[in-house]
Records
---
Amino acid sequence: MKLFIKPGAGSFAPHIVLHELGIAHEIEAVDTKAGKTASGADFSALNPKGYIPALLLDDGTLLTEGAAILQYLADLKPELQLAPANGTLPRYQMQAWLNFIGTELHKYVTPFFLPGASDDWKSVARSCLERRCVYINQELQNRPYLMGEQFTVADAYLFNVLNWFRFLKIDLAQWPNVAAFHARVAERPSVAAALTAEGLKR
């Protein structure tokens, strides 16, 4: 399978998970502005949405949207418990975390990377991010990961988004449990492998 990426962007979480799983895969960078892959292919012809992540399966099927890709990958090796079993309450709780991260964190980072985004918009977004981090800090008070003792794909997604906070000049230290979580996940070999593969420094 092939994961289309933009180094350090929203494709980083599924890239971490691929290394957690130890599944053979390719990655190919995408210039989303130009709509071209590193090999010169027309990315919009492959994925009309025009953004990453996108996972090309061995049978030619393209899977898009980070939360869907993360769960698909986790279910390839259920014995690793990167997602609770389908149909169980913990699975829906993990899906709630994925939705929360996507709509209440990822969404509010977007204006900081959009040319022309107003200062007012950024101010509102920053305030929302800080309020959500207060909540996450409370949730992580007595557990190492979002779902408890077990690292899941939701943790990979949260780590991915928290990585961007340094570009926003938001210091995670004001939420000690969030900062500890970020440091904990950063030490996973899968993170180091993904960073290396994407040409990013630790």
---
Amino acid sequence: MDKSKLLDRVGAVGDDRLLLAKVLDRAEQANARNIPAATDFLSPQQQMVTLDLLRLAGISETGYARLGGYEGAERNLFLFLPDWLDPDDAEGQSPIRCLRATFREEEKLTHRDFLGSLMGMGIVREKVGDILVGPGSADLLVLDTVADFLLQSWDSAGRAKLTVTEIDPAHIHIPQVQCQEVRDTVSSLRLDAVASTGFRMARGKAADLIASGRVQVNWRECTKPDKLLAAGDTVSARGFGKFELTEVGGVTKKGRTAIVLKRYV
């Protein structure tokens, strides 16, 4: 199947089509030149669409590695592997480098501060992976194509002065994720019913939000309010955050289902 038909099959349009075309180019480069070839960093949603594309293209899971610089990374790239490179050895060919930006702890910089500073320097989002902000420092995963420039030129975020150094990814600081446990009962496990609890809004408003295309289930867009969820599903919405349905309990005497959510705050 040619590239255009593959992109049609996966339903790619606009920016997504351009992105996936680049993914296929990297896969073809690894195959034709017999060298590792990496994409830029992809969001979780982009990764899911990419996986759909690779399955349609018949590219085996042993033909690529998904890397983010550390275990559990949210933003990852795909490294396509030549036949001489085993997936277990892919880390050694990774184009990802880890930088640490230190600042005065009282500055209390946020993820947005760092991202805004990088964009102001002309660094596009695709060149930067996760930004892990802690007290007094932030660890960033970046592509090697921009790492040296940042080491030499990046010295501030807003009014805060930065000292930027390269570190071994083994020494990365991963901040503890702030979560809130929510227990409730719902009339059903429909997406709109659970999202009403997860996003703290009326069920009708949740249904409208879903229909608008702003909601994702397990990083895939879902516009069906009646989609049934299961334990382990993650639901996110632009502007409203995300939550995980961690537990589905029994049914109450009134016919409602007990649920436990982990809401990210």
---
Amino acid sequence: MKKLRRLLLRTLLFTFAILLGLIGLQSLRFSSRQISLPAVEVLPVADRAVQRFAASVRIPTISHPDWVDSLAFEQLHAFLDSNFVDLHRELEHYRVNAFSRVYHWPGKNSQLRPILFLAHLDVVPVEESTRAEWQQPPFGGVEAEGFVWGRGTMDDKMNALGMLEAIQALLAEGYHPERSVYLAFGHDEEVGGAFGAQAIARRFRQQGIEFEYILDEGLLILEEALPGLAAPVTLIGTAEKGYLTLELQLAIEEGGHSSMPPTETAIGIMSSALHRLDTEPFPARIDGPTAELFRYVGPEMDQPYQALFANLWLFGGLLKKQLAAKPSTYATIRTTTAPTIISGGMTENLLPTRVTATVNFRILPGESMTSVTQGVRDLIADPRITVTPTESLANRDPSPVSSTSDFGFWVLQKTAREVFPHTVIAPALMVGGTDSRHYTGLAENVYRFSPVQVQHRDLPRIHGTNERLSVENYRGLIRFYAQLIRNSCK
């Protein structure tokens, strides 16, 4: 018996030693993917650029689902025409569906595929009940405390105005790109982009234009992005999740008076189905853009986090639990389920025979609207409940995953390293949606990145109360776009 115990102990120690060796070996192989480059000479950004940005915020180009505030959009177009005179003289430009804009800066070498930068001119409305909470008027465009305040400062006038400022600065230097540069500004991104981005993309397809890469708004430079990582992370979105809304409908024969309820009620049956969806979510996966994120940030982390990310084969389950603890990271590892509407019943003493529930899903790359719909049917497993996709124009499969080894990602990484040398650059998954979905197929690689640095506590300002952007962030954004054009168009 003693010999057996000694043998078991030796086996355990030997196994443990092998395990430690494997962990150490994987950690040693976990090398940095950051490129080393000197910082570039800082592009001077005049105060006038900040003033123009603030003035654009004062024009309330609010999106509405069923109409366009033509007066506000015409005011913005007139503002752009009068404030970027040199740009409008040098670049080809035209409108699409009256309120969206396309710019074309022809390159010297027609053999090079052009690049396309996207932004949108519309903003979301401000809830009337929150107006008293704003430190500055939401459409005041006030510059105070080192920030420009107002709706659109973070989503998305910053990118549209910043691109124009960058090109105007390059024109003033006498710069002329080798490859063509396109800008496309939609006017209805916040309500789906059907008349803006979708129409622009259709025109590009009709013209047979193929782009080297496409860049849209998206992820940010995030401070304190992960524990064990001191540096901010420049997150470049290489994909975005899909979107699906399902309607669950239940009709039963038995209703009647609430004083004599049956063993099963319509509301009870539907509640049980929704409970199953809540308690048995789609499986968590660390793959695709999220796995790429960890490969890029892991080598830059302190121990023991570096070893953890280097050995996901062993610690993947632990990491999933950690990521699942926060909604912002939970959404990066699984298709999420969110019941949003439920209806049924007319009066307090009458049992309904019909109940309807609406459930929204954000689909992880690798899954699809078809697979999610079937998964919901299989999980509910109740033939009395029909599961049907809504006719929403927002429904879509996840985007293709863009490469981290092609020119587009390389030039974004290079530019970010030059302009934001204090950050770690990494690909990542975008959980929200952008206009870029309409441009699928016009370029092999589509990226989603807004070059501004924020803290976690600032994220609710996007679409929220006290939206603002620091003046220094806006200056850095302009410098990024100017350098990105230089790097892309040599």
---
Amino acid sequence: MLIPSIDLQGGKVVQLVQGDKLAISSDDLDGWIAKFAKFPKVQLIDLDAAMSRGNNDALVAVIASQLPCRVGGGVRTVRRAEELIAAGAQGVIAGSGLFRLGDGSEPSQMIDHDFARALADTVGMHRLIAAVDSRGGRVCIHGWKTVLPLTAVQAVQLLEGYCEEFLYTHVDKEGLMQGTDMAAITAVARATERKITAAGGITTRAEIDALDAQGIDAVVGMAIYTGSLAID
């Protein structure tokens, strides 16, 4: 299944390359809502909240009231997760908050088990999507700036007791329009019995179909916004 993404920054719909370089900025929120209205799932990320630079809560509420959204960005507390559900989110995406810095001697020590359990207990495992972002073969957090001595495979194995779905982002390919890393995605999918949704460089219908054949949903952003992937 194709899941279109909406990233918010500074009150606009944006697309970034590698999480840093602004590539696309649009004020046409209503137009994108209309374009994505036919999809059963839409991914909505508040980049400002994710980077602790304020938030776009008003826009999140508008979008979530009109589209079936899974929402992420700045989910570092149980209260934040509750607020997103109250705003209309059908699911909550938690990422950096699920991890902690460690010395690498024990992978489990790099998971914030207390927070993960609290989120699962509060919003329900069925509504909690654990985001595992990978750069250079290791989990990265804090806007992809901090790399942990932990692999994505290890992360999903350690977190699968708290959620029913993972969002795996292959950061190395994010926003580059060069295709994704199917082998890396498949390795993560094989490491857990939980549902996997993949993101990061997914560009073509062939990639989406190949992932779908494995039961993996595909989040697509840049390819849609540049018009290289037609969704009409």
